[in-house]
Hints:
The structure is a single chain. By secondary structure, this protein is of the alpha/beta class. It has 3 domains: 8-99, CATH 2.40.50.140; 119-263, 3-Layer(aba) Sandwich (Rossmann fold), CATH 3.40.50.300; 277-331, Ribonucleotide Reductase Protein R1, domain 1. The chain has 9 helices and 13 strands. Helix 2 crosses helix 9 (320-331). The longest helix has 30 residues, at 8-37. The radius of gyration is 24 Å and the shape is globular. The two termini are 20 Å apart. The structure holds guanosine-5'-diphosphate and zinc ion. Zinc ion (ZN) binds at residues 294, 299, 301, 304, 307-309.
Amino acid sequence: MSGRKLTRQQQRRIDRIQAERNRRAASQEAREQQKLESGEFGPEQRGRVIAHFGKSLDVESERGSVHRCHLRANLESLVSGDNVSWREGDDGSGVVVARLPRSSTLERPTFQGVLKPVAANLDRIMIVFAVEPAPHANLIDRYLVAAEETGIQPALVLNKIDLLSDRGSSTLALLERYQGLGYEVIEASISAAGGLDALRDSLKGHIAVFVGQSGVGKSSLIQALLPNEALRVGELSSDTRKGTHTTTTARLYHFPDGGDLIDSPGIREFGLGHLDETAIADGFVEFRPYLGYCRFRNCRHVNEPGCALLEAVDSEDISAERFASFRRIVADPER
Ligand code: GDP
Ligand code: ZN
């Protein structure tokens, strides 16, 4: 992708477009600065970024109104979920003057492989699985490791519970093991009466993101939990005057029963490529009490004498399956 050569003509065109963008941004800023100084903007108030379109943002005020805002050039980039201090202009648009501290940051790699923040202040990662296709333990572990690395609390959602023929199924037994490790496990179904009650409850009071393999029902769940959203998205896009503002970045939604969601197609995907062996071990929560207690400081936990992890596996304080799963993730060159 990045190796593609541009013709001189293409390069000149790109330079011209960039120069034009810079010029427009500079005049926009100058206008804003002037307005700020002349007192055309109201006092600073708190708000939250709910969408991001290039240089502009939608900021939701504390009273729930949404304002198209510009960013002061000296601010680092903002993402959905960011709490900000902003000032409202006469026409309802506004300017963001400061970003407030983040409690968490969710990052995703760009096409160039550089990690970039995509959402802020999330406090739940809902890892969605389904009765069909049945989840493998190693896949669950991969999602958990990636979630643990972010510092955001993961929860496991077992969707399509209506397809479960028997409570003795191996999938339920598998998920019980994760409950045993302290993870919340929520059963859900868009097809059964009351099938979303537990999920709705669990989302209350949190800012969540849904992740998981394709086909497990993430879109279906989100649609069912946000019945009015198609309408709201339509309203917002018709209100963007130039019509060219499309959001490819994440957007924040409110669940009617409480709680928020940050979502975009890209945010639902997960990779482990950026994690080294130490981070992967740390992503297995029950390994943590043993990490740092191996005889050798650079222990790879393979067959070293005095390995605290191997001893914990021997004494069954760590399950052999989870340990094998750890080794598998570490050994996977494609991770
Ligand atoms: P995504 O790729 O994770 O977004 O999954 P989709 O939402 O596209 O769903 C994949 C398929 O699973 C679709 O055919 C859905 O109709 C189906 N599906 C989603 N949720 C449920 C459920 O609770 N029960 C059943 N039986 N099917 C479901
Ligand atoms: Zn070790």
